[in-house]
Amino acid sequence: MSSRLKDHFDRLAASRRKALVCYLTGGDPDQETCRDIAVAACKAGVDVLELGVPFSDPASDGPAIQMAALRALKQGATVKRILELARAIRAAVDTPIVLFGYFNPLLRYGLPRLCADAAAAGVDGLLVVDLPPEESGELEPHAAAHALDLIRLVAPTTSPERMRSIAARASGFLYLITRTGVTGSGQIDTQRIALHAAKLKSCTDLPVCLGFGISSPAEAAALAPLADGVVVGSAFVKRVAEGAGAREIGELAADFRRAVG
């Protein structure tokens, strides 16, 4: 089935280019600035925008994204407001948008309503960090009804059998975590990542993107040849926390875009 995500990855593959996936916390530092930053990043070469839904207990995230979530929540961020933000970004760019978050606020919003409203806002996919495939039965039919891709996470410790099971219930792309731990910290072991990426790609035809801990264009350049794309989050979020605006974030996105190739 065609989707904005699939079509974009197909175009990248045809031109032998890798995807740059950018994560930004929705509503950080505020709604309007976040919209401007996101649009600038997309126009500078981001291929997929992961728009984070702020949550009070983001257990998979490191300090940078935890603090961004708290800042956004203090600014009044809600699921409804993040969907409004997605709509505003979609009005400016055609970049695929993935709503990235934890299950609790999405469940509270209501899964049928979430999927309908996300699709209406121009969102293309969902990545629910703490929702494994076996627990996704309540979400999957609503996502499918609104043509929303479900992006799945694959851990660096996942067996090939488990990889196949996860891939069978995924669409859009697979997010291969590059190391154990939380986002935004730790060392990159390129040799080990290459092994895991090769195993995952042998299990699926879906694009594979690498993320967690890619903090510089040099690291992105080293990892991009190993998969179909890289995910960069904390590097952008830290710059936002330092006061970077649309111009600076656009320049950072362009640096990563050149590095990814």
What can you see in these coordinates?
This protein is α/β, with parallel strands linked by helices. The protein has a single domain, classed as Aldolase class I (TIM Barrel, Alpha-Beta Barrel). Helices cover 47% and strands 15% of the residues. The protein has a 9-stranded parallel β-sheet. Helix 2 (31-43) runs parallel beside helix 12 (246-260) and helix 10 (217-223) runs parallel beside helix 12. The chain is globular, with a radius of gyration of 17 Å. It starts with a helix and ends with a helix. The model has no long low-confidence stretch (mean pLDDT 94).
List descriptors.
261 residues, alpha/beta, single chain, TIM Barrel
List the helices and strands and how they pair.
Blueprint: H1 4-14, E1 19-25, H2 31-43, E2 48-52, H3 63-74, H4 79-90, E3 97-101, H5 103-109, H6 111-121, E4 125-128, H7 140-145, E5 149-150, E6 152-154, H8 160-168, E7 174-177, H9 190-201, E8 208-211, H10 217-223, E9 229-232, H11 234-241, H12 246-260
Helix pairs in contact: 2-4, 2-12, 4-6, 10-12
What is the chain-wise order of helices and strands?
Answer: HEHEHHEHHEHEEHEHEHEHH
Low-confidence parts: none
Helical stretch count? 12
Report, as a whole number of angstroms, the end-to-end distance.
Answer: 27 Å
CATH-assigned fold name: TIM Barrel
- Structural class, by secondary structure, is alpha/beta
Assigned CATH architecture: Alpha-Beta Barrel
